């Protein structure tokens, strides 16, 4: 079991930046990947970015160049840096932890990001 708590969301103007943080209640070394997903109203939850335990990253094609993911294993934290935000980035952003051997998946409660002028 692990609890994930997201923070850093809020209201930002188009073109602005936000850094989301995900704090894990215990070590994240055992998770094969940590990631961020987002869900806009009335839409499915979509993958934003993942980072493996080895530090390999993957960003959704439409977000490459604007979003980056990183992790700090010592602090048990995962981050999502979002630059050049657009209104269509408005969504609830969720932190995710995945462990392959038992296919365990954990979610945070989400943090709202609103991009509007």
Task: Describe the fold and architecture.
This protein has strands at 4-7, 10-12, 18-24, 33-39, 45-52, 57-59, 67-72, 77-82, 91-99, 104-107, 111-115. The chain is globular and about 45 Å long. The mean pLDDT is 96. It is 0% helix and 53% strand. It has 117 residues and is an all-beta fold. Strand 9 and strand 10 (104-107) form a beta hairpin. The strands form 2 sheets. Strands 2, 4, 5, 6, 9, 10 and 11 form a 7-stranded mixed beta sheet that branches. The protein has a 4-stranded antiparallel beta sheet with strand order 1-3-8-7, with no helix packed on it. It has no helices and 11 strands.
The largest sheet, given as strand count, sense and whether it forms a barrel, is: 7 strands, mixed
Mean pLDDT, to the nearest integer, reads: 96
**Radius of gyration in whole Å, from Cα?**
13 Å
Any idea what the shape is?
globular
Give the tally of β-strands. 11
Number of helices: 0
| Unreliable runs | none
DSSP strand content: over 45%
Order of SSEs:
EEEEEEEEEEE
Helical/strand content category: mainly beta
Percent helix: under 10%
End-to-end C-alpha gap: 40 Å
Features:
single chain, seven-stranded mixed beta sheet, 117 residues, globular, mainly beta, four-stranded antiparallel beta sheet
Can you summarize this structure?
By secondary structure, the chain is mainly β. It is built from no helices and 11 strands.
What's the layout of helices and strands?
Elements: E1 4-7, E2 10-12, E3 18-24, E4 33-39, E5 45-52, E6 57-59, E7 67-72, E8 77-82, E9 91-99, E10 104-107, E11 111-115
Parallel strand pairs: 2-11
Antiparallel strand pairs: 1-3, 3-8, 4-5, 4-9, 5-6, 7-8, 9-10, 9-11
């Amino acid at each position: 079991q692990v609890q994930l708590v997201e923070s850093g969301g809020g209201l930002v103007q188009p073109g602005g930046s936000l850094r989301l943080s995900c704090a894990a209640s215990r070590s994240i070394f055992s998770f094969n990947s940590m990631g961020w997903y987002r869900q806009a109203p009335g839409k499915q939850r979509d993958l934003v970015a993942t980072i493996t335990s080895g530090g390999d990253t993957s960003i959704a094609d439409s977000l490459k160049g604007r979003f980056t993911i990183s992790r700090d294993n010592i602090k048990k934290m995962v981050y999502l840096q979002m630059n050049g935000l657009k209104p269509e980035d408005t969504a609830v952003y969720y932190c995710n932890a995945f462990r392959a051997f038992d296919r365990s998946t954990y979610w945070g409660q989400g943090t709202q990001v609103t991009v509007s002028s």
